[in-house]
């Protein structure tokens, strides 16, 4: 079971800038926990996401030799991908591709068709530089804009990404509209059809419905889940009323109850939760 911790997602919508030194302190502590991957920053326009303008500086302060965790950085265009690919320490480049035309425009300032063209170039960069592309299918379970959505759309997008040889696709419930039934149907359909693709779950939820969604994803064969400690974050480009990330500590608790195999340093996790109070206050 792979747990991806997402401090970038948790921090990016905060109004007050988190000092670079505190970001470094927090992420270094997260690196001790044993998460498979840390989604630590993004190479996007500082005008769009000012909180992440110091991603390159943060990277320089990380103690990676003491951790088995890998690093993921989000990019929104070819320029960002080129920047991220220059850093040997970053293994994964993440790109948000939306099933909603409205959200694609809001999030990356381009159409879905243009985003696919972008992705083809970004995949070339990844393949040339030894990086792995992770595509997040935003609004993967529906959207609040009235844009068309059917589960068949998801399969059509995956078909196109499969042709590009994208090996990791995370279904993102950007605004918390997923249901256990919808989650089960999607993973039970996609995982057998594309056994060579690793499907993840990046679910946003209120605390009351989180457990049933985690159970639905896990029991449907999903073995990659994103979370953020204490459930902070959400996409600032989505809408005014943010729905937070799944709280990582709750994901771990539910998965433990389901007897999932996860190697986590509990002491380091507790310390991370304590430091998170400094970051999110």
UniProtKB/TrEMBL annotation:
One of its GO terms (molecular function) is lyase activity. Keywords: Lyase, Metal-binding. Residues 1-270 form the Pyruvate carboxyltransferase domain. Gene3D superfamilies: Aldolase class I. The keyword Transferase does not apply. PANTHER family: HYDROXYMETHYLGLUTARYL-COA LYASE. Belongs to the HMG-CoA lyase family. This is Hydroxymethylglutaryl-CoA lyase.
């Amino acid at each position: 079971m792979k747990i991806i911790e997402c401090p970038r997602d948790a921090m990016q919508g905060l109004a007050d800038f988190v000092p670079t030194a505190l970001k470094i302190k927090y992420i270094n502590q997260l690196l001790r926990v044993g998460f498979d991957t840390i989604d630590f920053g993004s190479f996007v326009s500082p005008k769009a996401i000012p909180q992440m303008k110091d991603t390159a500086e943060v990277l320089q302060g990380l103690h990676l030799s003491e951790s088995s965790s890998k690093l993921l950085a989000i990019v929104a265009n070819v320029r960002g991908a080129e920047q991220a690919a220059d850093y040997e320490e970053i293994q994964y480049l993440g790109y948000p591709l939306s099933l909603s035309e409205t959200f694609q425009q809001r999030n990356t300032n381009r159409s879905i068709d243009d985003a696919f063209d972008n992705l083809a170039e970004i995949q070339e960069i990844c393949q040339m530089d030894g990086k792995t592309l992770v595509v997040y299918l935003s609004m993967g379970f529906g959207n609040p804009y009235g844009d068309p959505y059917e589960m068949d759309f998801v399969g059509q997008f995956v078909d196109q990404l499969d042709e590009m040889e994208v090996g990791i696709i995370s279904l993102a419930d950007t605004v918390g509209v997923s249901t256990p039934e919808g989650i089960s149907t999607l993973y039970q359909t996609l995982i057998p059809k594309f056994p060579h693709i690793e499907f993840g779950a990046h679910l946003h939820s209120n605390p009351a419905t989180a457990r049933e969604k985690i159970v639905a994803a896990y029991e449907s064969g999903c073995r990659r889940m994103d979370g953020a400690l204490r459930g902070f974050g959400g996409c600032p480009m989505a809408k005014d009323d943010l729905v937070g990330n799944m709280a990582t500590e709750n994901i771990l608790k539910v998965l433990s109850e389901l007897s999932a195999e996860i190697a986590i340093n509990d002491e380091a996790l507790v310390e991370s939760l304590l430091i998170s109070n400094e970051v999110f206050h």
